[in-house]
Design brief:
One of its GO terms (molecular function) is NADH dehydrogenase (quinone) (non-electrogenic) activity. The protein has helices at about 1-20, 45-50, 55-60, 85-95, 115-120, 135, 140, 205, 215-230, 235-245, 255-275, 295-310, 350-355, 400-420, 470-485, 490-505, and strands at about 75-80, 100-105, 110, 130, 145-155, 160-165, 180-185, 185-190, 195, 210, 245-250, 280-285, 310-315, 320, 325-330, 335, 340, 345, 365, 380, 385-390, 445-450, 455, 470. With about 500 residues, the protein is an alpha/beta fold.
Length: about 500
């Protein structure tokens, strides 16, 4: 059990610290199988510090870049680019007796995105929706050949089976980023997508996207800051109305759920604790077409009525320009805002666009029925970054968490089968029979709209027939379903406690 392992580690650390008081210079980490040094290029500051060390110490701290190819007596290496729904599901299910797993991602956790909107207003704490990669696949923390690297992939050398990476650093006084390479036997691209801005000027500079935990943190800080600033003497009525105007662009599930959470926060918490602001704070949801376009028409009408009843103003329009304090619609209307959240779907990232591989409609990485990139060996793509090639005759699947998770589960099973058949090495799977192709069956869609109400649409497609319900019962189903889908029991406990605490005491309004 984790507490027992921690106790053993603490005891061992205490014993080692008491055994000797002399400083010990250790040699760089040597891979137990490849005998290769797992070190990276030195920065200028590190090189200066190194010059101060004794000569014999400097000889033992030579740095080398990256991971070389695996040898014959080593386990195969699967490199996974990304830590989203697709990549983390594959990492969780991969057989670590066959493969070493190397994950490359700019974040060391997976985000449970369906509950991310709840963290913006204090319904849930941020750590309740973040699952560390080391908990998803313990081998990354324990096995000598498995690693997580905080880095971005900058390119791929398909011919030499190499991934080019650059470390991710944060802050002005931190290390300069450096480059390194990782050799792979199998490569899985699960790099996700980025928010679509449709080339609209000012979106990236002034809007906040709701895709990562730090986005939710930024939204929460700005929302509470505007609430407090609106009470400061000297703020005009016009400026107060602007500060307290929250604008959400995009009427998909994320935009609707955030609008519902925000309206609940206003009705149940702001009006009690910010009495001076209760008449000025408002929410506007802007959508070019219909909100929740993938849901049943009856559910869309119900959601519209409930949002309006909650105080959300619905505006149909197209954003033409985004300025620091207002957005301009295509009809010339100016909409002042204090908080702008952008949720209009996703598109391919610059990294995906840069890859010299066939693309599916929409610019995603093109894959076949087995999620392979046909033009290069030993490379697969899953999640929002990929789509079926036109030659397969299959439509591009929507960028949904359940699609990505299902693809990760399928590909892990396929890689395990290939590894057991002896095809885990680079260029060794050409003669292995392919398994069943990937088939996606939609399980339905859910969205909460606030006021203890939600929508549950269990149809397999918009044209198909099936169960579609709304109301309090759907809200209970929504919460129960997502609570069971949270990956670890630890986070399930956190989420349940957060929900109970919010129900009894209200949302936390501290700006930390």
């Amino acid at each position: 059990m984790p507490w027992f392992r921690n106790l053993i580690q603490i005891s061992a650390t205490t014993f080692k610290s008491q055994s000797s008081l002399k400083p010990i210079y250790t040699k760089p980490f040597v891979h137990p199988f490849t005998s290769q040094l797992l070190q990276f290029t030195t920065t200028t500051a590190a090189a200066a510090d190194r010059e101060k060390l004794p000569q014999e110490v400097k000889a033992n701290t030579t740095r080398h870049a990256g991971l070389g190819p695996t040898k014959g007596d080593e386990k195969r290496r699967v490199v996974v680019l990304g830590s989203g729904w697709a990549g983390c599901r594959l990492i969780k299910d991969i057989d670590t007796k066959i493969y070493d797993v190397v994950c490359v991602s700019p974040r060391n956790h997976m985000v449970f995105t369906p509950l991310l909107a709840s963290t913006c207003v204090g319904t849930l704490e941020f750590r309740s929706v973040a699952e560390p990669i080391g908990r998803i696949q313990p081998a990354i923390s324990r096995e000598p050949g498995s690693f997580y690297f905080l880095a971005n992939s900058t390119g791929i050398d398909f011919h030499n089976h190499l991934v080019n990476c650059q470390t991710v650093t944060d802050g002005a006084d931190t290390l300069e980023p450096w480059n390194f390479n990782i050799a792979y036997d199998k490569l899985v691209i699960a790099a996700g997508a980025e928010a679509s801005t449709f080339g609209i000027k000012g979106v990236k500079e002034h809007a906040i996207f709701l895709r990562e935990v730090h986005h939710a943190q930024e939204i929460r800080r700005k929302l509470l800051l505007n609430l407090m600033l609106s009470d400061v003497p000297g703020v005009s009525d016009e400026e107060k109305r602007r500060l307290l105007h929250c604008v959400v662009v995009g009427g998909g599930p994320t935009g609707v759920e955030f609008s519902g959470e925000l309206s609940d926060f206003i009705m149940r918490d702001v009006r009690q604790r910010y009495a001076h602001a209760k008449d000025n704070i408002r929410v506007t949801l802007i959508e070019a077409n219909e909100i929740l376009s993938s849901f049943d028409d009856r559910l869309r009408v119900y959601a519209t009525k409930q949002l309006i009843k909650s105080g959300v103003r619905l505006v149909r329009g197209i954003v033409k320009d985004v300025q620091p304090e207002k957005i301009v619609l295509s009809d010339g209307t100016d909409v002042p805002y204090g908080l702008l959240v952008w949720s209009t779907g996703v598109g391919p990232s610059p990294f995906v666009k840069s890859l010299d591989v066939p693309k599916s409609p929409g610019g995603r990485i093109g894959v076949d029925e087995w999620l392979r990139i046909p033009s290069v060996p030993d490379v697969f793509a899953i999640g929002d970054c990929c789509g079926f090639l036109e030659s397969t005759g299959k439509p591009v699947l929507p960028a949904l968490a359940q699609v990505a998770e299902r693809q990760g589960k399928y590909l892990a099973k396929e890689l395990n089968r290939i590894g057991k058949a002896g095809g885990g090495r680079a260029n060794a799977a050409t003669d292995i029979d392919l398994g069943a192709p990937f088939v996606y069956r939609h399980l339905g869609s859910m969205a909460t709209i606030g006021r203890y109400k939600a929508l549950v649409d269990l149809r397999q497609s918009k044209e198909a027939k099936g169960l579609s319900v709304a109301g309090f019962g759907s809200w209970f189903i929504w919460r129960s379903a997502y609570l069971t889908r949270v990956i670890s029991w630890r986070n399930r406990f956190y989420v349940a406690i957060n929900w109970l605490t919010t129900l009894i005491f209200g949302r936390d309004i501290s700006r930390i």
